[in-house]
Every structure is written in structure tokens, then in C-alpha cells.
Amino acid sequence: MNLPTLRQLQYLVAVVEERHFGRAAGRCFVTQSTLSAGVHELESLLGTRLLERSKRKVLPTPLGEEMARRAQRIIAMAGELVEMARHDDLPLCGPLRLGVIPTIGPFLLPRVLPEIRHRFPLLELSLIEEPTERLLGQLEVGTLDAAILAFPYAVGSRVHEVFWREDFLVALPKGHLLANQKSIAPKMLPRRELLLLADGHCLTDHTLAACKLKDMKTSTVFQGTSLYTLLQMVAGGQGITLIPEMAIASEWPGSGEVRLVPLAEPGPHREIALVWRETSFRQADMRLLAGTMGEIFRASAGAT
């Protein structure tokens, strides 16, 4: 049986993603005629059309779209074979593409990355910040090696290792009626003042679950795009919000106008974990990375 070559699969993926032969050829560092011939050879080998061509545009057929998606995985796995051979006996070295969600990145990464780079100088980290669903999609097709996510969250068959557990605190304007409480029970929260992140941020779901307020997701007066935006709104007296413990040590403009009060609800309210594919050849590296991040972050937070 004749099988497609990796080069042919790379050409197909490039055309499907770029929707243009010229741009796809540039991305693959070949001439347009070479790329076009490679895709044609692939179609001949498979006995079917993968692309719809016209003078103005190129579109994948449904089969071409699906084949490109699967080809991404094959290409990623081939790359892993090369990396596995290069770094067979060294821990945490070589390229590692790591994703992180926006409600974790600003508070975790600055505190753990310097020490990680010090301990593992041969590690070549590439970082991307995206919402959870996008990171899981990139993990699936192999464009990411691992992601730092917040749980509870359904991640299917992917492997994850929790390295940090934390509770939420209520952030209020300093002059708020509840600002002098030692702790605040969920039933004490003024619902009409609660500020949340927009849909797509899992922190919103975790916040509402911790407060037992799952029914009010669409009734809040404001939905922000970042935790810093919500805190600025609180500092300006526009409402209240909840923040995770890892954000406490961070400074932000207006922080002096905000009072933080523990949420009187048993925790942990969320868990932070490293997630990776169960088929990854770097299982030991991932567990080492998760354990190292947890160790460094606990030390920086003064935890035992």
C-alpha cells in the first residue's frame, strides 16, 4: 500500500489553513508549483479530490477538511519522534509549547518561570494565553504540548496533574457595607452588584459554583474581559467580584481602594493543573513540570 508522505500532508494542511496556494507555498518554503504538484499527487494517491479550486480561491472539500485535521496530528507526532530521539536522557529540555488561561497566566507565570528556566536551562518554552476551549483544541491537534487550566473542568481522556488548590476572596470597595466582615457567606452577597468575566472564562463558572449562584450567569450588571478590569471596576465603586487566592500578591492600579474578604464557603474553590495528551511521549517531563511549578509557587506564596 502506498502511503501519503509527511511533505504531502504538510502541503495539504498549509493550503487548508491559508486558503491560498501562494501563501501556503511561502509557509512551506517551496514554490507554488511544487506545492500544487504535491497536493495533486496526494489526491491521485487517495483517488479523491481534497480541494475545490478556482481562479480566485481554493476551498477544502469536507473530506479535505477532515484529512487536514488528522494530518495535523500525524505531523505533530512525527515531530515528537524527533524530539524524543534528541532528548532521550535529559529531563525538561528542548522545545515545549505551553498554553495558559488568562485568569492564571498573570499571577502564576511571573512567579514560577524564572526558577524553572534556572533549573532547566535547556528547556525552550513557547507560551500562549487563550481561553480553555481554544487551548484544549490546540492540544488535540498537537500544536500545544501542555496547558495550565483551572478545574473542575471536563478534559476528556487528557491527563492532568493538580499542583495548586485555592479559595476565592470577595473583592469590595473599601467603603462597602460588607468591607469590615471577617468572612462573607454566599447568601450575604448582593447579587445585583456582582461583576463577572464574560462567557468563555471558566473562572465565571467556578465563581458561581462556589457562591451557589449558577442561576444568575446572564443577569449580572457587567461582564469583563479580564480579572484586572473587574478589579478596576471594584476600585471605582462599581460593584464587587471574586478573585482567586493566587491574585492576592499581585499589585494593580487602584488596589489600595479594594478590600479583600474571605468567602465563607468550604474549599478549595478551584484547582490549577497541568494538562497534556495521554499519547504524549513526554509523560515524565509533564509530571516533573507540574511538580516543579507547584513547589515553586507554594514557596513564593509562603505555603507549606
Q: Can you give a write-up of this model?
A:
- This protein is α/β, with parallel strands linked by helices and 304 residues long.
- It has 3 domains: 6-85, Arc Repressor Mutant, subunit A (Orthogonal Bundle); 87-165 and 270-301, D-Maltodextrin-Binding Protein, domain 2, CATH 3.40.190.10; 168-262, D-Maltodextrin-Binding Protein, domain 2 (3-Layer(aba) Sandwich).
- It is built from 9 helices and 12 strands.
- The strands form 4 sheets. Strands 4-3-5-12-6 form a 5-stranded mixed β-sheet, with helices on both faces.
- α1 packs across α3 (32-46) and α1 (6-18) packs across α4.
- The mean pLDDT is 87.
Helix content bin? 40-55%
CATH superfamily of the largest domain: Periplasmic binding protein-like II
| Oligomeric state of shown chains | single chain
Main β-sheet: number of strands, strand sense, barrel status?
5 strands, mixed
Strand count: 12
Topology:
Elements: H1 6-18, H2 21-28, H3 32-46, E1 51-53, E2 58-60, H4 62-86, E3 94-100, H5 105-119, E4 123-129, H6 132-141, E5 146-151, E6 159-166, E7 168-173, E8 196-197, H7 202-210, E9 223-224, H8 227-235, E10 241-244, E11 258-262, E12 270-276, H9 283-301
Parallel strand pairs: 3-4, 3-5, 8-9
Antiparallel strand pairs: 1-2, 5-12, 6-12, 7-10, 7-11
Helix pairs in contact: 1-2, 1-3, 1-4, 2-3, 5-9
